[in-house]
Specification:
The chain has five helices and 13 strands. By secondary structure, it is an alpha/beta fold. The strands form four sheets. A five-stranded antiparallel sheet has the order 2-3-4-7-6, covered by helices on one side. Strands 11-10-13-12 form a four-stranded mixed sheet.
Length: 285
């Protein structure tokens, strides 16, 4: 890929929203350098920092006879920990338990692992957040691998039986009704409502209808100036507004909660080669 074009793509995914501290801004730009999928930051009025989700979880669950690890009764409902073929296979039974409950149960199994679950967009449920570094010996189990559960696939990890280190894992979970996402992705990545939808450079009025057909309403707009597409516009920050002219051009977006989206708009079109690059990154023609 053209290095200059690649730099523009990273600035599009995600741009740093207003209200971030310098430290948070530095973290977000570091994420931009590592993660190709579009994932804009939440507007300033939503104060909790969002995390960019990886496109897919890692690993696969091997079939074998399971031996249940004996755990303390106080936290037994939070996790299901099994010893299977050289691994601890850990399934999250209570997605809304306190992190201390997870940690206590993992400590009972001899593991120094801190686990947190945050509300995430649909495509990132069960995936590890980018702020988390998976140590050697720990993998997130692919939720789609052999999953036939009517109520949804479990969120699980597996830890090598001889793992002796420490780790902190942040995983995406389903959001409660009305709960804002804290792990986000672009609304056009696989598994999200606008995947492969023809929205680039279309007016707000058309994209509003596309979203409505998919059960999504526009909550806010992130207005991006023309300088944002240029090399000199790297530090340009979007301006969040409740409404914009219906004629403005849509250049991106993301879900803020179930059924609600923030839409990125500009007075200028994205260049055609940039649009092609963005589509390629999401597997769209």
């Amino acid at each position: 890929m053209n290095p200059q074009l690649d730099d523009v793509v990273r600035r599009l995914a995600p741009p740093v929203g207003p209200g971030l501290t310098p430290g948070a801004r530095e973290t977000m730009y570091k994420i931009m350098e590592e993660e190709p999928a579009p994932a804009p930051a939440l507007p300033a009025r939503r104060r909790r920092r969002a995390l960019l989700a990886l496109p897919a979880a890692l690993g696969a669950l091997a079939a074998s006879l399971a031996v249940v690890v004996t755990l303390g009764p106080a936290s037994a409902s939070a996790l299901d920990v099994k010893d299977e073929g050289g691994y601890f296979v850990i399934e999250v039974k209570d997605m809304f338990a306190k992190p201390e409950e997870y940690q206590q149960q993992l400590r009972d199994a001899g593991l120094d692992i801190k686990l947190r679950l945050l509300p995430s967009t649909p495509s990132s449920v069960g995936s590890v957040a980018p702020s988390t570094v998976e140590p050697d010996g720990i993998e997130v189990i692919d939720r789609q691998e052999g999953c036939e559960t009517a109520g949804g696939c479990p969120i699980s990890i597996k830890v090598r039986r001889d793992f002796k280190g420490s780790a902190e894992l942040v995983l995406g979970r389903e959001a409660r009704p009305g709960e804002e996402y804290q792990i986000i992705t672009g609304f056009d990545v696989p598994g999200e409502p606008m995947h492969c939808a023809p929205y680039y450079n279309r007016p707000v009025s058309e994209v509003r209808a596309l979203l409505k057909d998919r059960g999504v309403d526009i909550q806010v707009f992130d207005v991006l100036g023309p300088a944002f597409w240029t090399k000199d516009g790297k530090e340009t920050e979007p301006v969040t507004k409740a409404s914009v002219p219906e004629s403005m051009h849509v250049v991106g977006g993301y879900l803020t909660m179930a059924g609600k989206a923030a839409v990125q708009v500009s007075d200028s079109d994205l260049p055609a080669d940039l649009v092609r690059t963005m589509k390629e990154k999401t597997g769209c023609p």
